[in-house]
Design a protein that fits this description.
This protein is of the alpha/beta class and 287 residues long. It is built from ten helices and ten strands.
């Protein structure tokens, strides 16, 4: 975090990139370094922070002083898992009409923002995938290496690591724009991942944003908006092998029953518009 970067020329951003975070700045710094390398520079970044500690807040403030793109930090107090609530707050704060959602442990390919914007359509939800890095490759991919252009040559290293039985889903890191390999990678929608999707803000507001009843990780956060957006008549388009991400290694999170019960109720009611979203859930955090 010592280098100084030229400022990106942003007035009104074409996209608001919303990154969900909770501590782990060592991972977040890699993600932010990835956004420093983007081919499109007309975007802002909003950190949707579910109550990170003082050490993380200090590191974010230090990075903000030199960030080459507009970087805003939306935070609330740590009162347990309230990711969907802070995500709604970030959605309201977003200046762009187009939103791109990313997790704080997923590094974007250099053409990540470009591809989401290139495929953007009203009434359409763009759904990307991610390649899962091994623990070894996660440690190798430092912020400094990312700034030195490591992502430009990541595919070969990732494929080799995959052959060695370490990284997984390496084929999802193959960039196919204008590639003769394009016919080998059909674009079939296989579900929404909360770490890599985008849509117009209006389309998300049509379902009242994220349902804030999900108060445990790894269950419902992705599936719930997928169902409700579908019930609202939105179409889903895959941008696999276009909008690429590299997922940093960590242990799998448990899937608590409490969130499964909320999702079961949502599936029973089959209502696109949630009563527990941006408008109804209590907006003291938005003031």
């Amino acid at each position: 975090m010592q280098a100084k970067f030229p400022k990106f020329p942003v007035n009104t951003p074409a996209a608001s990139v919303i990154i969900s975070i909770y501590n782990k700045f060592n991972y977040l710094e890699r993600v932010l370094a990835g956004f420093e390398q983007q081919s499109r520079t007309d975007f802002e970044v909003i950190l949707a922070d579910d109550g990170s500690n003082g050490e993380t807040l200090a590191a974010i403030r230090q990075y903000q002083q030199q960030a080459p793109y507009p970087l805003r930090h939306v935070w609330h107090e740590d009162k347990g898992f309230r990711k969907t609530r802070i995500m709604n707050k970030a959605v309201v704060a977003a200046e762009a009409s187009f939103l791109i959602f990313v997790d704080g442990d997923c590094i974007p390919h250099p053409r990540f923002v470009e591809e989401h914007l290139a495929h953007a359509r009203e009434g359409v939800v763009l759904c990307g995938r991610r390649a899962n890095l091994s623990d070894k490759l996660t440690h190798w991919l430092t912020p400094e290496r990312i700034r030195q252009g490591a992502l430009q040559h990541m595919t070969g290293r990732l494929l080799w690591d995959s052959v060695a039985g370490q990284s997984r889903d390496a084929e999802k890191a193959i960039y196919i724009r204008n590639s003769p390999l394009k016919p080998l990678f059909p674009q079939k929608f296989k579900g929404l991942l909360g770490c890599n999707f985008s849509l117009y803000k209006k389309d998300l507001l049509d379902i009242n944003g994220f349902d804030e009843r999900y108060e445990a990780p790894a269950a419902g956060e992705d599936t719930d908006p997928e169902y409700r957006l579908g019930w609202a008549g939105k179409k889903f388009v895959s941008v696999k092998n276009y909008a690429i991400q590299y997922h940093l290694y960590h242990k799998l999170l448990p899937r608590p029953e409490q969130s499964q019960r909320v999702l079961a109720q949502v599936l029973k009611e089959r209502k696109a518009y949630s009563r527990y979203g941006i408008q109804q859930a209590g907006r003291e955090s938005l003031s």
